[in-house]
Amino acid sequence: MTWNDAEYHCKSNGGHLAYITSQVEEDFITNFLNKERLNQYIWIGLSDKGKEGSWSWTSGYPFSWTKWFPFRYNSDKHNSEDCVALVPAIGVIFGIHANGAWDDLHCEAFNPSLCRYDAHQTAAALVNDLLGLLSNLGHSIFG
């Protein structure tokens, strides 16, 4: 789904596209994605749609920590790339292992997404979102 559709999906279930605030959170997400052997970009809730180069999370959480993929953040040729995705954990770009780094992409690209919910969010919504992510990636925990 597009980045806007992904944020709408997350909001309709009481969350937002994921925001990542530390290396600990990044490692947790990357380890999960590595276990699934994912090879697709995955939308997170960061964009500079409002003003080029001014990054913000859809949740409103303060933007202070990054893990940009080398040579890919905000270069002149990427001015129309306003939405951020995790680079495939098993991906290699320009000979560099990505391992969950961030890249800005065109917001209309179709990618699976990662939602984040507050602690009070129901377990059923979290399970449904995880099942949806795995389904979008062609995985199933039932067989």
From TrEMBL:
UniProt-recorded name of the protein: C-type lectin domain-containing protein
Gene3D superfamilies to which the protein is assigned, alphabetical: Mannose-Binding Protein A, subunit A (3.10.100.10)
Domain of life: Eukaryota
Organism: Dreissena polymorpha
Organism lineage string: Eukaryota, Metazoa, Spiralia, Lophotrochozoa, Mollusca
Domain C-type lectin, residue spans: 1-116
